[in-house]
Write a structure and sequence with these properties.
Elements (H helix, E strand, L loop, with lengths): L9 H39 L17 H5 L8 E9 L17 E9 L23 E8 L1 H12 L9 E5 L6 H15 L4 E6 L9 H10 L1 H12 L7 E6 L1 H15 L9 E7 L5 H8 L7 E5 L4 H9 L14 H10 L2 E4 L12 H4 L1 H12 L40 H4 L17
Parallel strand pairs: 1-5, 4-5, 4-6, 6-7, 7-8, 8-9
Antiparallel strand pairs: 1-2, 2-3
Amino acid sequence: MLRRRIFPSKALIGRSLLTGLRQKLRAVARLSRGLFRLMFGLMPTLLLAGCVSLDVPDVPGTIASVGDVFASQPPEAPHRVVIFVASTRNGEKGAANEMSHDGTHYSLQMISVPPHHKIGEIERPAFGSADPAHHFVLASRRDLDEASFRNALATHISGRIGSNRDVLLYVHGFNTSYDEARFRLAQIVEDGRFGGVPVLFTWPASDGLLGYEAARETATASRDALAHVLRDLGNLPDIGRIHILAHSLGTWLTMEALRERAIAGSPDLNGKLGNVMLAAPDIDLSVFREQLRRIDPAHISVLVSAHDKALSLSSWLAGDRPRLGALDPHRAADRAALNRLGVKVYDLSPESRGFVGHGTYADAPAVVRAIGMQIGKARLQDADIQAVLGKRPIDSNVTAEPLPAAATPAPVTSVPAAAATSPAAKLAPPTAGVPAQ
């Protein structure tokens, strides 16, 4: 008998292969789901254990965080603000509210500003260590002696054009720590878009109401050091204008140092003095009048607020003596007193923030932008002047190099409409005196 060999049909073979392929795909899918569940289940543990770092060196190709695995773009880097610091404090921590035992300390510091910084704020951690991705941090510092400080300033100014050769000197007020002082200056530079060179003068400002009288004494002891810094700045041949922003009790210290320079024969810092902006000045009105006898009031702008409770307390501690920064331009008597001074006056009362209202000059976005526009505006008379190290100055003020005229900067358009009509938003250009109400 002949036996017929039976072969499977092509259809049967196809169905078998398809069934096997489906089974393998299901197995791969189950394995993939298991791996994803394992990864996401372990992720919190890895983060808490510190196995995934959120702050790693900026090395090309390095993954900075778990989120970057799924990110379509690399995370934004923090901004860096370089500041020069002159300090009469005895260190930065602990005894920082005591006077230095060995004179003024100088340094060059770099402040890291978080990429998503909000105007008017200094982002700091509520607890734990600061993260540069979210907070202000000190990125680096280099100690200098006085000669190195001057040379580094001159080098930093070299090559700048026009108003970018200007310096902004910041003098903080009472109850301000070292960190608060340097971070505040970095915040003002960042928010105000200042293109020049920032300099901080920090002094032992005490820490609490009971230390107010002690702060007055350390401010008095710091006058000579600040006057010395002003002298050094004024002697830099390539510098543009020296603008000063002082706050609270620091305004008294600033005016006293300027008065010292005036008595020494340099009332306008060798022609370099620019805008002197006194924010919430904690100065007795009669004392301020005497200070102005030595200083041209055309340089002075006073930022006042009738809602400043800190100045009200200072007035009470001084025996109900009126403080300059608490005068109300809407009151006839105060307006007349301000007009007699001959200074420019800006009322920040509508922009007052918080219960105390003492830091409005830096807390309100419209005010910060206006200050930045005021001190950073271009000047036609030296728009084509460049700072060049080693060149002989054409006069005592500047070193000249022929350059194309600098372009006029675009106006700031991000001020809210409601704030654009406020007195704070009109800091640039200024108007002399206080307008009649």
